Amino acid sequence: MGGRKITATSLKKKGPAHPNSRRAHQMARIALRQNKINASKDVRDKARNARVDRIMTFILLLPEEKSHLPDLYSLHDFVRTFYLPRYDDDLAELEKEQRPGRPPSRQLTELRDRISAEAREYNEGMEVPDLCNATNVELLRAWQGDPQALHLFRFPK
Question: Are the CB atoms for 67 and 134 separated by under 8 Å?
Answer without folding.
Answer: yes
